[in-house]
Design a protein that fits this description.
Blueprint: H1 11-22, H2 59-64, H3 71-97, E1 111-116, E2 125-133, E3 138-145, E4 150-163, E5 166-172, E6 175-179, E7 187-191, E8 195-199, E9 207-218, E10 221-228, E11 239-246, E12 253-258, E13 262-267, E14 272-275, E15 284-285, H4 299-302, H5 304-311, H6 315-339, E16 348-351, H7 355-361, E17 373-376
Helix pairs in contact: 5-6
The chain binds 7-hydroxycholesterol.
Length: 386
Amino acid sequence: QAGEAVPVAQRGSWTSFLKSIASFSGDLSSLTAPPFILSARANFPVSLTEFPAYWCERPELFAAIADATTEEARALAVLKWFMSTLKGQYTSRNESMGSEKKPLNPALGELFYGVWPDKNGRGQTDLLVEQVSHHPPITAYVIENRSKGLKLVGHSAQKTSFSGGSIIVKQIGHAVLTVKPAAGGEVQYLVTLPRLRIDGLWYGSPYIELSDHSYIVGGGYTCNIEYKGKGYFSGKAHTFKATLSPVHSSGDIVVEGTWHQNSKITHGGSGSFHDVSAPKEEVTAVGAEAGGEMGGMETRKLWQFVSKGIREGDFDSASKEKTRIENEMRQRRKDEAASGTTWPMKHFKPLGSDPVYEKLAVLADITPETEDTYVFQDNWPATLRS
Ligand code: HCR
């Protein structure tokens, strides 16, 4: 019998869902899950195309990277911004919806545009997301604060497997942060992504723990971030240890703490480091496809009735609407195959290997030695450039 958190009427389908993921490897997002585990926020649906917004929900920390005037200060500012995104990326569904949920699987060409407005001189930060592949799902994104000379371009995909009752998610993809300091020049940082374990499945209340390592490399420093859960460094959940090392000299700085709460510098300095207890700032969605209106491929418009059904507990109409969208997409693919065309990407161009990744990954012995990338075409919609 499945756990307490699963509504009685959905226990049978939850058990079947768990059995299917136990024997499945590949694109988990395409499996049909019982309605209680589907994701919908107060007023809009949550498709994976909205997730890149987690990178900038503390826009002042992103902007602060531009204020650093030494390599060490900049490397610390990049690490602080990165650590401060993890709570939103990996625990925010638990906080707002009671447990980790299954996001909507984006359609090819799905779009999301948003903005964090200028406040207290931090400058405006813009967000643009495009689903560049459906099988497997790949989401490409760019986040830019033009006035501060900061730009993050990345893509995200996942490989899932099942082990010991948990889902293991290997994140594929990386991001490159480009900083143009006021003093001139350009500095680039490679940001890689941690591995996830989804526990609590049997009880119907999944939650995420991070494991292994992720890296931030560039600007004269490498940073190795090690993640542990309960029973490792401190017996606490969501623990990390980040070691920041200069490439050409000695003198590590070590930061330790819990990524969803706070941390302090434990070696090579002292004092508190990051603290995410203050509220974060969600992105404001901007309709851009149709000159300021949301077009049919913009995520909140595309999924609006699926989301409404989930929120209102009308799972029949949510599932009918989801099937309608999926059938429409299938038909589109068939028509393209018949006419020998493919869906054109709107904002990105795929590139088989990323020269920035190759140059920086080697400094921290990151494998694989190369990864593909999606190059942003610098074609921001006018609504985000007013
Ligand atoms: C694994 C996951 C889809 C991918 C989500 C990613 C990795 C996407 C990139 C973001 O930057 C960070 C991120 C956070 C999410 O936690 C992660 C999702 C968690 C669950 C979901 C599975 C496809 C759905 C599993 C179904 C379970 C909950 C029953």
